[in-house]
Design brief:
By secondary structure, the chain is mainly α. It has helices at about 1-20, 25-40, 45, 65-70, 75-80, 105-115, 130-135; strands spanning about 80-90, 90-100. Helices cover about 55% and strands about 10% of the residues.
Length: about 140
């Protein structure tokens, strides 16, 4: 009997806590969790489980300075890939190919929300609208 009462109280508390979240917090949590799955399926092989990259072959995703400075170009990199000299991260050049990831803007927003808020990064949500606007400016 006590276990049932404790279980009901815990369930009610969880519902109360969840219902106290703002729409922005709920949206962030949804983008982040879906982005985690996308990252595991499409990015983790090259960039690693913890975003550490693969030595000189694949850049780490732990450099918040690079991510913040290039926030508007990240959707273009994901959508259209890169060839040749990719980027310089932590004063280390990377060359090779970043494959084209033909993803919808919402998927790009979700995976970017995950990446830019994982691996020591804290940049907040990146919306599908922001990604769509950034993709219009790709060169």
């Amino acid at each position: 009997m006590k276990i049932k009462i404790i279980s009901i109280i815990c369930l009610l508390m969880a519902i109360l806590i969840y219902s106290c979240q703002s729409d922005d917090q709920i949206t962030f949590a949804r983008y982040y969790s879906i982005g985690s799955v996308i990252y595991q399926n499409k990015c983790q092989n090259c960039h690693g489980k913890d975003g550490q990259g693969l030595s000189a072959l694949m850049p780490a995703l732990t450099d918040s300075v690079y991510l913040k400075a290039n926030k508007a170009t990240l959707p273009c990199i994901i959508k259209y890939g890169l060839k040749g000299k990719l980027m310089i991260i932590n004063k280390k050049p990377f060359e090779g190919d970043m494959p084209v990831m033909d993803m919808a803007p919402i998927e790009i927003a979700e995976v970017l929300t995950y990446v830019t808020n994982s691996f020591g990064n804290k940049m907040g949500i990146i919306t599908a609208q922001q990604v769509g606007d950034d993709l219009k400016d790709c060169k």
